[in-house]
């Protein structure tokens, strides 16, 4: 890594740490999706102004090229506008909302780890992220800055017991007691994934399309 890149990364991590500390003192400032609040996850907020409502509803973007070619209006939902920069924020928020005192654990080399670390920091529960040790140094640094317990493992095949996903699953079964036992997110198999989109994302889409004059 170039020295200047390392300096910028340190500044970025320091900024995130300061931001999270402020959020813990003033929860209203936290611009996460909002499913971390203890509410029915099917109860969507009414349209409103302000940072929290803006973070809850990512925009729909009209795709002109596909629309012209198909003869229908084609929209894309701009999930990159979420605080974690991806659609994984939705599952992470829902999982953190249901987490016990042991928090969450997941094996991930992608954006899920960032989303989970942010969600757990907001919910004030532990986050254990298992990932390959050859993942970008910036990702390791950001996860730690967000308060996650990072376990870096040598890359091996998914069938190997020490693959980072299998290690995360094992961490959830070897806890000494229930208070220390994290919940294994299991992002690709959990029904919470589709249920979150069914109860949260789908109503958002329907409401946004209706506001655009296209009732669903």
Automatic annotation (TrEMBL):
Q: Where is the Tryptophan synthase beta chain-like PALP domain?
A: 56-210
Family matches, as InterPro entries: Cys_Synth/Cystath_Beta-Synth (IPR050214), TrpB-like_PALP (IPR001926), TrpB-like_PALP_sf (IPR036052)
- Output the Pfam families linked to this UniProt entry: PALP
The record, for PANTHER family, names: CYSTATHIONINE BETA-SYNTHASE
This one is known as Tryptophan synthase beta chain-like PALP domain-containing protein
């Amino acid at each position: 890594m170039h020295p200047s890149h390392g300096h910028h990364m340190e500044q970025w991590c320091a900024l995130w740490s300061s931001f999270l500390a402020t959020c813990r003192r003033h929860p209203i400032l936290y611009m996460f999706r909002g499913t971390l609040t203890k509410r029915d996850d099917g109860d969507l907020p009414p349209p409103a102004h302000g940072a929290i409502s803006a973070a809850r509803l990512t925009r729909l973007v009209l795709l002109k090229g596909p629309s012209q070619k198909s003869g229908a209006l084609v929209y894309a939902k701009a999930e990159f506008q979420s605080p974690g920069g991806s659609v994984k924020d939705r599952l992470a928020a829902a999982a953190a909302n249901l987490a016990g005192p042991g928090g969450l654990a997941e094996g991930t080399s992608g954006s899920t780890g960032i989303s989970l670390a942010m969600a757990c920091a907001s919910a004030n529960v532990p986050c254990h992220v298992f990932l390959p040790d050859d993942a970008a140094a910036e990702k390791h640094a950001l996860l730690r800055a967000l308060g996650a317990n990072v376990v870096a493992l040598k890359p091996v095949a998914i069938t190997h017991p020490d693959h980072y996903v299998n290690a995360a699953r094992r961490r959830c079964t070897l806890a000494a007691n229930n208070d220390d036992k994290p919940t294994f997110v299991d992002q690709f198999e959990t029904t919470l994934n589709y249920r979150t989109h069914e109860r949260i994302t789908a109503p958002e889409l329907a409401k946004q399309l209706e506001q655009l004059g296209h009732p669903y």
